[in-house]
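job 3f2a | input accepted
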Amino acid sequence: MLCTTTREGYDCNFMTPQGCSFNGGTCHPAVEACQGCDRTITVGEMVFCRSYPDPAAKWRYGNCNFATHVKGETQEKPKLNPLKASKRASRGQ
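job 3f2a | predicted structure (93 res):
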């Protein structure tokens, strides 16, 4: 349903025929950590998140899971010595 409060004309999952069903009745503006994300939209002079109405809550305990500009940490697998691996395989371990 199209938003009729803060993000007029944009699709919003929280809009109902009675109005915005999100806590407080309106979306909250994006926080500084959201700068550079592909999911932000600018309405007037305010920046909002398209995916979540309260972006500050997503950043409270770490990285936002919707953030497109944050790369996740990947752990490198330990290097495996091929000679030791072949010996283990021959022993049946």
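job 3f2a | Residues 1-71 form one domain.
job 3f2a | closed
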